[in-house]
Amino acid sequence: MTLQLQDLLGERRAAGEAYFEREADRTARLCHRLAERFARGGRLIALGAGAAARSDARHVAVEFVHPVIVGKRALPALAVTETLERSLTLLARPDDIVFAFEPGRGEVAAALAAAAERGCLTVGWGFDGEWGFPAASEDPLVDQEIVETHYHVLWELVHVFFDHRGLLEGRSPRRVHDSGASSFLYPFLGEQQDDLDAVLSDVRASVLLKAEEIADLREQTLRDGHAELVAAAATVRASLEQGGTVLALGNGGSATDAMDLVADLREPPPALAARGWSPRAAIDLSDDTPIITAVANDIGSEAIFARQVIAYGRPGDVLVALSTSGNSLSVLAALRQARRDGLRTVAFVGYDGGRVVAEQLADHVLITRSEHIPRIQEAQASAYHGLRELIEIGPHVRSVSNDVPHFQSTGGRN
Fold it and tell me: Can you tell me the distance from the alpha carbon of 82 to that of 76, in angstroms, rounded to the nearest whole number?
C-alpha cells in the first residue's frame, strides 16, 4: 500500500477543524474562567504521568511562566510528573487550576479527583467532564498535536480577559481595551468592548482563526519539506538499524518537543505499538538538569548541548535539533559539534531557517515559514511525528507525475 503526503495532511486538517468547531465556545469560556483564577492568585499545575504526557505538562508550564509574546505577563505554572496525587495534596490550593494529560491513567485520575476536592478548576484532555475534552483523533500522534494547539490557544487567549478587567470577579472595570503591540493576535477585538458575551464571541472567532492558521502552516511545512522529511527518515532509520542512537535537543518549548520525540521513539503509544512500532534508541539532551546547569555555570549556556554531543554521540548517530528561530547559540554549537564528531544531523526550524540554513549546519532541514512561535511548534510537531511514522514504515521515494515524491510503505500502518 502507499502512504502519500495527503494522508499526513488530510487527517490532521479534518480532525482539527472538527475539534475546534466543536470546542470553540467552551474554549472561550474556559479562557475567562482561567483568567478569573489567575486574577485571584491561582496557579496552574500541569499533570502528566506517561512519557508523552510529561512533555505536554512541561510544555504548558514553560509557556505560561515564560511568555514568548512581548508585553504579556508571566503566569504561575508548574509541571508535576511524579507522585501525582501526593504532590497535589501538598501543593494544590483552592484557587489553583489543574491541567491533566492522559487522565485515564489511574494515578492521573486520582490526582485530578484530589484537585477537584480541594476546589481547583480541573481541565483534562481525553475524558468527559465539565472541562474535559474528548480525544480529537484515534491516532495518538494527531491527537497530541491538536491538544498542543489547544493549550497554546488557551495560553494566548486567556490574556484577552486581563485586558478586560471589569469582566473578572473582584477586579475594577476598565471600559477601553487596547491590545497594543499584540493586537495582531486578537484581530476581532474592538476597543470599546465591556460586554462578556461580546468578548466571548470574539474569542471564539479567534480560536477558529488560529485553528485554520495552524492547519495551513502544517500543510506548508509538510508540502515544502516533503522530500527532506523522507530523506531524513531514511537517514535516521539506517542509523537505528545499524545500532545508532537519536540525540534530540531544543530550548524552552522546543525542549519539550525534543522530549516528546524521544518519548515517541523509546515508548511508542500503545495503539502504535500494537501495529508493530518498535522502541528505538534515543536520548533527550534537554532532560538532565544537573548536567545542563553544570555546563552553563562552568562553561556557558552555549555549550549545554555540545558537551553532551561529545559525551554521548558516536559516528553514525543522528542529532535532531528543534528551534523556532534557527539562531539559538546552543543549538548551533551542538550541530557544529555533531558534524565534527561524525553524526548525521536533522533540524526543524522556523522563520526563514536562520543561521542553521544560512550556514548549512544540518544534513536535512525542515522549515516552518512563520514568525509566530506557538504555531511553529505545532507545525513542527506534525513534522517530527511524520518523521517518526516514516521511520517505522520504511520510507522509499519514487517519482510520480510532475516529480512529486511519495511514500511507499512496507507495512506498519493500516
Answer: 19
Cα gap 145→348, rounded to integer Å: 16
Q: Contact at 8 Å (CB) between 205 and 188?
A: yes
Most confident of the ranges 78-82, 127-131, 163-167: 78-82
Angle, in degrees to the nearest 10, between helices 140-162 and 5-39: 30
SS (H, E, C) the chain: CEECHHHHHHHHHHHHHHHHHHHHHHHHHHHHHHHHHHHCCCCEEEECCCHHHHHHHHHHHHHHHCCCCCCCCCCCEEEECCCHHHHHHHHCCCCCEEEEECCCCHHHHHHHHHHHHCCCEEEEECCCCCCEECCCCCCHHHHHHHHHHHHHHHHHHHHHHHCCHHHCCCCCCCCCCCCHHHHHHCCCCCCCCCCHHHHHHHHHHHHHHHHHHHHHHHHHHHHHCHHHHHHHHHHHHHHHHCCCCEEEECCCHHHHHHHHHHHHHHCCCHHHHCCCCCCCCEEECCCCHHHHHHHHHHCCHHHCCHHHHHHHCCCCCEEEEEECCCCCHHHHHHHHHHHHCCCEEEEEECCCCHHHHHCCCCCEEEECCCCCHHHHHHHHHHHHHHHHHHHHHCCCEEECHHHCEEEECCCCCC
Extract the C-alpha cell encoding 156.
Answer: 494566548
- Kindly state the cell numbers that stand for 357: 540554513
379 has a pLDDT exceeding 50? yes
pLDDT tens per residue, range 189-227: 444 446 889 999 999 999 999 999 999 999 999 999 999
How far is residue 42's CA from residue 98's CA, in Å, rounded to a whole number?
A: 10
Query: What phi and psi values does residue 125 have, to the nearest 5 degrees?
Result: -110, 125
Q: How far is CA 55 from the centre of its chain?
A: 8
CA distance 139 to 255: 23
Mean local confidence (pLDDT), 62-91: 91
Q: In what order do the strands lie in the sheet with 397-399?
A: 2-3, 405-408, 397-399
Question: Do residues 123 and 100 lie in contact, with contact meaning Cβ atoms separated by under 8 Å?
Answer: yes
- pLDDT one-digit tens code per residue, 263-315: 999 999 999 999 999 999 999 999 999 999 999 999 999 999 999 999 999 99
